[in-house]
Design goal:
CATH topology of the largest domain: Immunoglobulin-like
CATH class of the largest domain: Mainly Beta
CATH architecture of the largest domain: Sandwich
Order of helices and strands: HHEEEEEEEEEHH
Structural class: alpha+beta
Strand order of the largest sheet: 5-6-3-8-9
Number of domains: 2
Shape: elongated
Number of helices: 4
Strand content: 25-35%
Largest sheet: 5 strands, antiparallel
Number of strands: 9
Length: 209
């Protein structure tokens, strides 16, 4: 093979290598461009994201809150010192409303250890004392119930006051603790009860010398 032929083959070989290298660099650049968008593309994507997430002008924002009923109740002991020495207790219920309610149902729920003596409502002989009343706007309605405590345990007495308004039923519930209520309403008594409880649970530690 002549020198001229060798030169021609060498030129063709290096030309082929250059073409292959050029194609490889170009393809690699396209792949890099796809995986790593330019700054202009990043700005465009960021603007598109803000446009999607940003609420439209004039769109309303919905806020939710607890639905309040038309009734307010307050349950207390007529004697703020708690049950009498004989264990009798008188509970006083106050009912108010910001509108006229012709049909309001009052139900007392008596636990075991509590006996019904009398007061407003009809006793079913077991644990419910019920009656239906009407409540006028901004007028306080008071109901009382007389009970006998049969032991020294803390008993929870509940009262439910229900009414219906615009097709919806609303119920307010109050609870009275026969043993703890005087302490719950008196900070000094509660502090004294907490101290006595701490003293009761302290371990009996003996030190031997």
């Amino acid at each position: 093979m002549s020198v001229k032929s060798l030169l021609i083959l060498a030129v063709l070989f290096f030309s082929a290598l250059g073409t292959a290298y050029f194609l490889q660099v170009k393809m690699g650049g396209e792949v890099y461009s796809q995986r790593n968008p330019s700054s202009d593309e990043e700005i465009h994507l960021h603007a598109l994201k803000e446009q999607v997430l940003k609420p439209k002008k004039g769109a309303s924002v919905i806020h939710t809150e607890k639905l309040r009923g038309p009734l307010e109740i307050h349950l207390s002991n007529a004697d703020k010192n708690g049950p009498s020495a004989s264990g009798q207790i008188t509970l006083n219920l106050q009912i108010t409303s910001d509108r006229d309610l012709p049909h309001v149902r009052v139900r007392w729920v008596l636990p075991p250890g509590v006996q019904y003596l009398g007061g407003s409502g009809s006793f079913d002989g077991h644990k419910f004392v019920e009656e239906e009343i009407s409540v006028n706007r901004d007028v306080v309605v008071e109901k009382q119930i007389y009970l006998q405590l049969l032991d020294d345990l803390n008993r929870q007495i509940h009262v439910q006051v229900s009414s219906e308004q615009t097709g919806m039923q609303f119920t307010e519930v109050a609870q009275y603790n026969t043993l703890f209520e005087p302490y719950l309403n008196d900070g000094a008594k509660m502090e004294s009860l907490q101290k006595s409880s701490v003293e009761d649970v302290k371990p009996d530690v003996k030190v031997f010398e």
